[in-house]
Amino acid sequence: DAGVIQSPRHEVTEMGQEVTLRCKPISGHNSLFWYRQTMMRGLELLIYFNNNVPIDDSGMPEDRFSAKMPNASFSTLKIQPSEPRDSAVYFCASSPGTPTWQFFGPGTRLTVL
Amino acid sequence: AQKITQTQPGMFVQEKEAVTLDCTYDTSDPSYGLFWYKQPSSGEMIFLIYQGSYDQQNATEGRYSLNFQKARKSANLVISASQLGDSAMYFCAMREGGPGSSASKIIFGSGTRLSIRP
């Protein structure tokens, strides 16, 4: 079985550019989570979806960040415009309908120059 | 308010010794879950063990066990017979709400970096 799939694995972009991160959750899982990890702030929950509906986006840093889940097998996290302080590893995770634990994707390492 | 506290930023342990990683939590929800994840230098997050708030026995998974002390609100991870491959960052996490809760986000602690000496 494939785990959570994230793309790209690495992204280097320049300040002001739009960045789109992609996630495919494990088939059958109906909760999806986006996290950001930095040395300074640790692992932060940005937003999570249940049955494709955003439940809590209080962790989204500002309006430059947006996330969508158009169907059960795909989600995107978009940053527009990107800034150097957005540099981090972004993880996507999914869990089944009665969540006990989350399965993490390999992460996307984002560098904004 | 911080709900998950890991007070050991780093630990060094001799290979083959047992190690305990501390975690305390705070919640007013009677139903919750506690987790430990391992993050090696390669960066992936690996689920290790889970303990439900109503579970009567401490969870165990191979060399990992969770020392769950509900009254003290602690959920320490114990690794028996440590190995060099155990060197990694370890995160404690908590989910509020029962397994059937539709809004079940997980909050992570700041992590403990474990280094195993040969």
Layout of secondary structure:
The complex is a heterodimer of chains A (113) and B (118).
Chain A: E1 5-7, E2 10-13, E3 19-24, E4 31-38, E5 42-50, E6 53-56, E7 65-71, E8 74-79, E9 88-95, E10 103-104, E11 108-112
Chain B: E1 4-5, E2 10-14, E3 19-21, E4 24-25, E5 32-39, E6 46-52, E7 60-61, E8 64-69, E9 74-79, E10 88-96, E11 106-108, E12 112-117
Parallel strand pairs in B: 2-12
Antiparallel strand pairs in B: 1-4, 3-9, 5-6, 5-10, 7-8, 8-9, 10-11, 10-12
List the keywords.
heterodimer; A: mainly beta; B: 118 residues; four-stranded antiparallel β-sheet; globular
In the predicted model, the low-confidence regions of chain B spanning at least 5 consecutive residues are none
Distance between the termini of chain A: 36 Å
Principal-axis shape of chain B equals globular
Helix percent of chain B reads under 10%
Global outline of chain A = globular
* Separation, N- and C-terminal Cα atoms of chain B: 39 Å
Largest interface: A-B, 24 and 23 residues
Residue-averaged pLDDT of chain A, rounded?
Answer: 92
Oligomer: heterodimer
Counting helices, strands and paired strands, the structural category of chain B is mainly beta
Uncertain stretches of chain A: none
Radius of gyration of chain B over all CA atoms, rounded: 14 Å
Helical content class of chain A: under 10%
Order of helices and strands of chain B: EEEEEEEEEEEE
Number of helices of chain A: 0
Radius of gyration of chain A: 13 Å
Secondary structure tally: strands of chain B: 12
Report the β-strand fraction of chain A as a percent range. Answer: over 45%
Largest sheet of chain A: 7 strands, mixed
Briefly note the structural class of the backbone of chain A.
mainly beta
